């Protein structure tokens, strides 16, 4: 590689995703996937989409899916943007909406893709410290900055901001685009989509990867004022004219058509989260209150790395972070009941050994 290109590439500091192990006899609680399979109706819709139309390009605008999402959330179709997973939707938002002459603001502990996109698109950023108990304080986001982004609930802490707090943030920052990344909102939070018609600076991003069990299909979407969506469409059309494949379009539509399966898996995950939280507390863990499909917990007597390694020896993988302030915390994805029982047994053995 020439010196010139090598310097450009080496200046990028890419995101490192959680491990996707090549063996499948592990209990995988490290990347916040849904432990339940997609509904039969979704699988059938995907199978049906593999008919002889697969040789043709899909609809470049994915209008069928946009309309389904618009109907589901009671907004207009031109208020919906769809992409290949919410990571891609976020990438387009960073490029189209968040590059300003003032720095982008986000919490100091948050989704670690944000600084990566800033590096990729040449966006200055400033991190705002979380409170002692890992909460975002909306009052800290005044005066400064050109735009704001944060996950709600936050990742990897799982802490939720209420709609009231988000509204306060929007009122205090009417001159800034505010992006709320709701990857985990369906596990007990209230979506800010209900605010988009009132606050035209608000963009809400969601995904089908978590609550809809479709991480492998790669579908994400953004909802906001039509002008913000137009900005995203312009970037997308300059990047990839077919962001959604045919299977993803039909599978995603079928997911929005099956409310019962969606609600049922969310309820099951919330119940298991409460069971796990109780168990962790009884073993002496400090558990941050979670509204996501994972918990964030630390133990006074064992390092996160130690526990993660011991769990791995028992064929269970969880996540820990080599970062200041959170290096003592494990992030554990909520599994199904059997996985959770195995996890609880393994943790009891480790803590009481
Ligand atoms: N936002 C947050 C906060 C996440 O944790 C993730 C998952 N890693 C994403 C967005 C991206 O999810 P996906 O691309 O699968 O939609």
Characterize the structure shown.
It is built from 11 helices and 13 strands. The mean pLDDT is 94. It has a 7-stranded mixed sheet, with helices on both faces. It has a 4-stranded antiparallel sheet with strand order 9-10-13-12, covered by helices on one side. Strands 1-11 form a two-stranded parallel ribbon. It has helices at 3-10, 40-48, 63-73, 86-97, 113-121, 163-172, 226-237, 246-257, 259-282, 304-313, 337-352, and strands at 27-28, 80-83, 104-107, 125-128, 147-151, 177-181, 202-207, 220-224, 286-288, 294-298, 316-317, 319-320, 330-333. Helix 3 (63-73) packs parallel to helix 8. The chain has 2 domains: 3-38 and 260-352, Aspartate Aminotransferase, domain 1 (Alpha-Beta Complex); 40-258, Type I PLP-dependent aspartate aminotransferase-like (Major domain) (Aspartate Aminotransferase, domain 2), CATH 3.40.640. It is globular and about 60 Å long. The structure holds 4'-deoxy-4'-aminopyridoxal-5'-phosphate. Residues 85-87, 111, 151, 155, 181, 183, 207, 209, 215, 220 line the site of 4'-deoxy-4'-aminopyridoxal-5'-phosphate.
């Amino acid at each position: 590689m020439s010196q010139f290109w090598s310097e450009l590439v080496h200046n990028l500091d890419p995101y490192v995703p959680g491990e996707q192990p090549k063996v499948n006899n592990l209990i995988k609680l490290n990347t916040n996937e849904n432990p339940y399979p997609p509904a039969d109706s979704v699988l059938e819709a995907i199978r049906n989409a593999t008919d002889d139309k697969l040789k043709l390009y899909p609809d470049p605008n994915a209008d069928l899916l946009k309309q389904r999402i618009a109907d589901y959330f009671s907004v207009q179709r031109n208020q919906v943007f769809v992409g290949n997973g919410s990571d891609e939707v976020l990438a387009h938002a960073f490029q189209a909406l968040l590059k300003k002459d003032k720095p982008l603001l986000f919490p100091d502990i948050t989704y670690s893709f944000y600084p990566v996109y800033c590096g990729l698109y040449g966006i200055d950023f400033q991190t705002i410290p979380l409170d002692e108990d890992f909460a975002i304080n909306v009052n800290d986001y005044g005066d400064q900055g050109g735009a704001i982004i944060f996950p709600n609930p936050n990742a990897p802490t799982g802490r939720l901001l209420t709609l009231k707090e988000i509204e306060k943030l929007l009122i205090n920052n009417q001159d800034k685009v505010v992006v709320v990344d709701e990857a985990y909102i369906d596990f007990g939070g209230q979506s800010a989509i209900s605010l988009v018609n009132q606050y035209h600076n608000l963009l809400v991003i969601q995904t089908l990867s978590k609550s809809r069990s479709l991480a492998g299909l790669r579908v994400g979407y953004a909802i906001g004022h039509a002008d913000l969506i137009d900005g995203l469409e312009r970037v997308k059309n300059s990047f990839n004219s077919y962001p959604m494949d045919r299977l993803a379009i039909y599978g995603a539509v079928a997911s929005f058509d099956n409310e019962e399966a969606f609600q049922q898996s969310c309820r099951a995950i919330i119940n298991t989260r409460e069971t796990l939280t109780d168990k962790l507390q009884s073993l002496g863990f400090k558990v941050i209150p979670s509204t996501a499909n994972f918990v964030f917990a630390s133990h006074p007597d064992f390092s996160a790395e130690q526990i993660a390694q011991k769990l791995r020896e028992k064929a269970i993988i969880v996540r820990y972070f080599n970062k200041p302030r959170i290096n003592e915390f494990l992030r554990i994805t909520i599994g199904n009941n059997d996985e959770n029982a195995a996890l609880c047994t393994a943790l009891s053995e480790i803590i009481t050994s």
